[in-house]
Amino acid sequence: MTEQTPTPAEAIPGGVVNPATPPAPEPEQPEAPAAESSEQSPAAPVPAEPDYKALYEKMQADLDATRERSTEAGVEADELRAQVAQLQEQGLRDRIAAEYALPPVLAALVQGGDEAAVRKHAEALAAVAAPKPLLGAGGLTPHAEPDPYKGLAEKLRQRRYGI
After folding, report:
1. 15, 9 in Cβ contact below 8 A?
2. How far is CA 22 from the centre of its chain?
3. Dihedral of alpha carbons 142, 146, 149, 154, sign
4. What is the pTM (predicted TM-score) of this model?
């Protein structure tokens, strides 16, 4: 014989009414005279009344467990939101650092709270990190005529050997 747990509507005196759910139809019981039913099953077990206190304690334990899981999920969601915000900020910094062609060492130093501040800081770093122009070209003057024989050896090699 399997013992069935009563529903909250059955377990709570007065029942639980949810306006969204229609009332459950009551099961029809065949009408039989009392004399016949006692003669047919003299040893029929009488259903025990549900233990309301145990049901209440079980529901309270379930409610507490659900509240604890809800709190844990809320904390986890907050951590994930913070992580997403941090990744978005890092993505913004990396994108702007790439626009200004900053090396990775300097890209890691870019700071700012919003896009305008990050751009301003990246621009300042790019100005500092820009290569300085060299003075002179190793003894050649900028007015020097181009060498007419430059590449002549290469052209001869290509013509002679086909390379």
Report:
1. yes
2. 39
3. positive
4. 0.44
